[in-house]
Amino acid sequence: METLRDKLIGIIKTLPEDRLQMILDFINQMNQSSYQAPDDFDELQMELRQ
User: Is residue 38 part of a domain?
Assistant: First the structure.
């Protein structure tokens, strides 16, 4: 059975460089103390749809 980690690694391997950078930037932003989940997540979704 494939773990959640394995699924995530599989997805990451298929991402183009610009999308991967966007996700890494989002994760770094989440790790900051000023993170506000709903607004930031909506912003990431809009960026990924472009």
Answer: yes
